[in-house]
Protein: Large ribosomal subunit protein uL4
Organism: Iodobacter fluviatilis
Amino acid sequence: MDLKVINAAGEAQAAVAGSDALFAREFNEALVHQVVTAYFANARSGNRAQKGRDNVSHTTKKPWKQKGTGRARAGMSSSPLWRGGGRAFPNSPDENFSQKVNRKMFRAGIATILSQLVREERLVVVESFTAETPKTKAFAQKLAAMQLDSVLIITKELDENLYLASRNLAHVLVLEPSQADPVSLVRFKKVVITREALQAFEELYA
């Protein structure tokens, strides 16, 4: 599979060959959905808590007598039917939302996403991507010159200048190949990957 290459001015260069196993895979919507859903589920902290009937503040006194009032029977104000009553099935703070994704399935999902990015012309390769200074303004100007606004940059090693220059840009994220996740890959309009990171990607997932 030939991958599009651009230079520092955003101009197209000679294409580079990429692994067919990683960049020429058929799109599998169900697989991508499962991998992305599992990623979001595994990121949940599970710290929400609700009060049951035994946790709410209430009296155990019967609100009114059993018969003769015309009202429905009521034994305690902690009933889930009452305002201020406890939940019938309260959420527990130690709830576990994690979903298991096999390594083979995760790799196949990443390859499917990358292949779709290539087909949609959203993935490009650059020789290298560096920041001379840790200044956000200079880095933003460099991205503008390359005609990139919403972009995920994948580089072999994340140096300090590149990290500091990019961290305040809301629509820019810089990662190393091992840190790339399915949500970040589909979130941005463009994915820019360096040649060294491309080799690392192929070693990880191909």
In short: The mean pLDDT is 90.
